[in-house]
What does this fold into?
Amino acid sequence: MTATASKTTASAPGKAILFGEHAVVYGQPALAVPVSQVQATAMVAAGAGGFWIDARDLGRRYRLEEARPGDPLAKAADLVRKRAGLERLPDAVLSVSATIPIASGLGSGAAVATAAVRALAAFIGLTLERGDVSALVFETEKLLHGTPSGIDNSVVAFEQPVYFVRGQPPQPLRVARPFHLLIADTGRPSPTRLSVGDVRAGYQREPERYARLFEAVGAIARAARLLIEDGQPDELGPLMSRNHQLLQAMDVSSPELDRLVDAACRSGALGAKLSGGGRGGNMLALVTDETAAAVERALLEAGAVRVIHTYCRAANP
Ligand code: PMV
It folds into this structure.
C-alpha cells in the first residue's frame, strides 16, 4: 500500500432523473443528469483513537466499529478498506456534509457516499476509476433503497448525463443543445425506499397494468433521448408531462408535487414532472430563459421551498 495523506477532500454533485424513475427498476431505460448546484463534500483528516465518521448534517459522530447496522458511510469506508487490501483503516476522521436535501430525489445518499469513497481512497493512496467508485457506491445504495436500479450512483460517480438501463454500463447521453430546467422542492422529504416498495406492491397486485405503465415510461425515455441527442430539447415538454401522468398512475405523486407541476405548466413551462422517488421531494420544469423567472415565481407561490436553476449540457471532456 502507498503512503497515507494527512488530509484529503472530495466532492460529488446531486442528480436529477429527467425521465424513467421507477420504471428503471423494472428494466426500462432512464435519463439522468448531474446537478452541480448542490453538492456533497467529504474530508478525511488524520486523527487518533481509531477511524471516526462525522456526519455533521445528521449531528452524529461515531467510531467505525460502533456504526449502526446498515450504515451506508460505514459500508463505504469498509468497502474502500477491503478494496485497498487493508486489515484496518488508519486513525482518521471522515467528515461529510451536503447541500443536497435528504430524501428529496436529488441523490443525496449517492453523492455523500461518492464523496466519502473518493476522499477516503485518496487518503489511503488508492486509485479508483469512476466505474469503481460507482460500483462501491451501488453497494451503499442497497442499504438505503433496498433494490436500487443503479442510476443514482452512475450519474453521480460519472458526473455526466447518462442513458441508463439496469444491469448495463451507463451510456453517455449526448446533450446536443443545452436546456434550462428549474428544480423545485416541495420541502417534504420522502424516503425512496417507501415509494419503491409501494410500486413493487402495486406491480404484484396488478402486474399487467404496471407493466404497461413501465413500458410507456420506457418509450418516453427512448424518445426523449433522441430529442436530446438531436438538439431538440424544446420538444421534451409534452414527454415530461406524460411521464408525470404515468407516475401519478403508479401512485407516486402527491398533492404538493401535482400543485407544483400544474403551477409550472400554467405559468409557461414547456412541461413538468416529479423527479426521483416521488411522494415528496423535487420536481422539474422545462423552461426557456424567457419563461424561467415567471415559472420560478409561480413555483414559489405554489409552495416550493427552493427553486434551483440548472442547465443540462454536454459533460466536460
Ligand atoms: O429518489 P431518488 O433520487 O433516489 O431516485 C430513485 C429512482 C428510482 O427509480 C425511484 C429508484 C431507483 O433505484 O432507480
Q: What stands out?
A: The first strand starts at residue 7 and ends at 19.
